């Protein structure tokens, strides 16, 4: 498994996303648990979840898997609702997540998206959880550059380790200023939904993608994930519901592109030429 520097650590090039995991019947749940085990057994060392996912069902499933693994061998990330962003509610949400995850700490705890609570209060609450030993570090999600600049202007805002935004070949808004800004400030980036969510619902597959995947003897999903990982400067967290798909995702880490192939894809899915409102799923 190729690795990147993420959260100041040596981390697998992809993580395990868990949106919609744990919401099906027993057969589906067993397949999802097997997928996570396959990933952990084959070099992936970061799992991303949230209290929002199935209102705790995702965290519960993840907890049932990781209880059989050495907790020091992987990073565990969860996120809290923006209406749980006060110091008191952060602590309550965190303790509930830890219970479902069957662990006594998180490596990263993220504000899922911005709400009405002032960032200064949220940061104060997160810093308190770090001091309590319940989280190692904290971050944010669905922040644009202006949000990130505001965050760094408040006390302890510079302690934000990561920002997680939508990123796939059809949603490239972060390339214009978010990624360069985070690189400048040594803040790691997570890109979610590399396939445009389930069944590419939020990503229109252009003919060039299908044609190129066939030429390279890979699947469309492997091409999409390989494209996201092409620069090796971010973590992508594809969600997977079966060991077979997890294996396919791991193989996509080794997908490479020629300059001509990247140019063809850029024509079909142009990079942003100006600041734009970031998309969210």
From TrEMBL:
GO molecular function: oxidoreductase activity
Annotated Gene3D superfamilies: NADP-dependent oxidoreductase domain
Domain NADP-dependent oxidoreductase: 13-269
InterPro entries noted in UniProt: AKR, NAD(P)_OxRdtase_dom_sf, NADP_OxRdtase_dom
List of catalytic residues: 53
UniProt site (Lowers pKa of active site Tyr): 79
Pfam families xrefs: Aldo_ket_red
Annotated binding of substrate, by residue: 112
PANTHER family, A to Z: ALDEHYDE REDUCTASE, OXIDOREDUCTASE, ALDO/KETO REDUCTASE FAMILY PROTEIN
Name of this chain's protein: NADP-dependent oxidoreductase domain-containing protein
């Amino acid at each position: 498994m190729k690795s990147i520097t993420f959260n100041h650590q040596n981390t697998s090039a992809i993580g395990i996303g868990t949106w919609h995991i744990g919401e099906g019947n027993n057969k589906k749940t067993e397949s999802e648990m097997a997928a996570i085990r396959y990933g952990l057994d084959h070099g992936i060392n970061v799992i991303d979840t949230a209290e929002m996912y199935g209102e705790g069902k995702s965290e519960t499933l993840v907890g049932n898997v990781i209880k059989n693994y050495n907790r020091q061998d992987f990073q565990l990330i969860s996120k809290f609702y923006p209406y749980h962003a006060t110091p008191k509610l952060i602590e309550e949400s965190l303790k509930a997540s830890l219970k479902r995850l069957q662990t006594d700490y998180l490596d990263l705890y993220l504000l899922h998206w911005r709400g009405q609570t002032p960032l200064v209060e949220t940061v104060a609450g997160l810093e308190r959880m770090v001091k309590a030993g319940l989280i190692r570090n904290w971050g944010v999600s669905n922040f644009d550059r202006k949000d990130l600049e505001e965050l760094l202007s408040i006390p302890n805002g510079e302690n934000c380790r990561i920002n997680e935004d939508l990123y796939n070949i059809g949603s490239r808004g972060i390339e214009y200023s978010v990624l360069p800004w985070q690189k400048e400030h040594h803040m790691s980036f997570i890109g979610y939904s590399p396939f445009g969510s389930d069944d590419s619902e939020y990503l229109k597959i252009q003919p060039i993608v299908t044609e190129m995947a066939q030429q390279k003897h890979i699947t469309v999903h492997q091409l999409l994930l390989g494209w996201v990982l092409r620069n090796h400067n971010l973590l992508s967290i594809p969600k997977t519901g079966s060991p077979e798909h997890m294996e396919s995702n791991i193989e996509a880490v080794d997908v490479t592109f020629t300059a001509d192939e990247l140019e063809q894809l850029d024509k079909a899915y142009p990079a942003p030429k100006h600041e734009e409102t970031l998309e969210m799923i």
